[in-house]
Design a protein that fits this description.
Blueprint (H helix, E strand, L loop, with lengths): L3 E8 L4 H14 L2 E8 L7 H9 L5 E5 L1 H13 L17 H15 L1 E5 L8 H12 L4 E3 L10 H10 L15 E4 L4 E4 L12 H4 L14 E8 L2 E5 L2 E2 L2 H14 L4 E7 L5 E7 L1 H17 L2 H20 L5 H13 L5 E8 L2 E8 L7 H4 L11 H17 L4
Parallel strand pairs: 1-2, 1-4, 2-3, 4-5
Antiparallel strand pairs: 6-7, 7-12, 8-9, 8-13, 9-10, 11-12, 13-14
């Protein structure tokens, strides 16, 4: 795609960084900027982004509601793997980038743009995720990454640039420049300011926006049921809902009960460690409910194999390889394992905890007649002796040289 040498499609949030980038692109590349704002469930009105783009003279403005596609085609497939990066992070920011990148390239084709641009810094993971997505969708696209080109080296430089160009600078609850935050329907991440010191305790009253702290949650539990079909949630308390509606509802339930805030230090793909506070109330509930459903319906070998594949799968998503052949290959295996992950999980939500209280499935592999402690006629306990002796054979042979 050759493209119009005068057009660049910018992933635009309407926030400080991308507003500065918009003006910088116009000045530096003498180009016409097309803005693209994706509604992934940030939880805020996106019309101000349109108004801000219009105020800055932008003629082609794309604002699109991608919430259902985001949850259906990205979040839920990822959750079928029970994906956790480094055992903790539910990949809320990571999983949003491939969809934004894909749609941005599609818009570039529609408007005939020769380049795309993003607001990710040269220190972070998002630059990698966006650009791997761009190249996967269009190998010949030109990418403009302002943070790797300009001489604005700090948050202070950005604010000075904004004030010089009459770009509004947002304030937080204390009248200061805010934490660096990224939000979508799956999570909200907060980084920067005091969080850059891993010893400093986060001020959750200042940081949290989607949930209360466990200490402030109600003193009585909330009981819910989640119905699953082929590994994906389809109903809450028996009420069928769309994917985005389900995640929205789980966020509300989890947020009200103080579920889903984590303070972590993670290893970025670019080589450094970073510290952040992540809010993932609905995703935390979903992870525990899914594992309860799988415990009933997955064969032991399949369940253990899934757990072995998960860290690699999570790392691929974290590093930006959603469109890679190996991720798709792993996805096929994960989806196969989820074919009978169907049924209902009952749980209580209480002060930051998700407490499983029951699970049932038409495909349950749990057999009360076999596991009962009462007398039964389907399991001969004497068979266990031969099973143990066969499994002990190599240990007994090895013991000749160790005892």
């Amino acid at each position: 795609m050759a493209g119009d040498k005068n057009k660049v499609v910018l992933a635009y949030s309407g926030g400080l960084d991308t507003s500065i980038i918009l003006r910088w692109l116009e000045e530096t590349y003498n180009c016409e900027v097309v803005t693209f704002t994706a509604d992934l469930g940030q939880g805020e009105e996106l019309e101000p982004a349109r108004e801000k783009a219009e105020m800055m003279g932008i003629k082609e403005i794309y604002i699109e509601d991608l919430r259902e596609e985001f949850v259906r085609d990205y979040v839920f497939p990822m959750f079928r793997a029970n994906a956790l990066y480094e055992g903790t992070y539910l990949l809320g920011t990571s999983i949003a980038r491939p969809l934004i990148a894909k749609r941005q390239i599609e818009i570039a084709r529609e408007v005939g743009a020769y380049a795309v641009s993003h607001g990710a810094t040269g220190k972070g993971n998002d630059q990698v995720r966006f650009e791997l997505g761009y190249y996967a969708c269009n190998p010949d696209i030109k990418i403009i990454a302002p943070w790797r080109e300009w001489d604005l080296a700090s948050r202070t430089d950005l604010i000075n640039y904004a004030e010089k160009h009459q770009i509004p600078v947002p304030k937080d609850k204390r009248g200061e420049s805010p934490f660096s935050q990224d939000a979508n329907l799956l999570h909200i991440s907060s980084e920067g300011k005091i969080l850059e010191d891993p010893w400093q305790e986060p001020d959750y009253d200042l940081i949290l926006t989607r949930m209360v702290t466990p200490m402030a949650a109600p003193d009585t539990p909330t009981e819910i049921t989640i119905d699953f079909e082929r590994g994906d949630p389809v109903a809450i308390n028996g009420e069928k809902m769309s994917p985005a509606t389900i995640l929205t509802k789980l966020n509300e339930l989890g947020g009200a009960n103080g579920i889903g805030a984590i303070d972590i230090v993670e290893n970025r793909f670019v080589g450094m460690k970073s510290r952040g506070v992540y809010e993932t109330p609905g995703g935390t509930i979903l992870l525990h409910a899914r594992r309860a459903m799988e415990s009933l319906t997955l064969d032991r070998g399949a369940a253990h194999q899934k757990d072995e594949l998960m860290p690699r799968y999570a790392e691929l998503i974290y590093n930006g390889f959603w469109f890679a052949a190996e991720r798709e290959m792993l996805q096929a295996a994960i989806d196969k394992a989820n074919e009978r992950v169907t049924g209902t999980v009952r749980m209580k939500l209480y002060k930051g905890n998700t407490i499983i209280t029951g699970r049932k499935s038409p495909f349950s592999l749990y057999d009360e007649d076999i596991v009962t402690f009462e007398e039964d006629t389907v399991y001969d306990q004497r068979d266990a002796e031969g099973f143990i002796k066969l499994n002990a054979l190599r240990l007994r042979l090895g013991a000749k040289f160790t005892n």
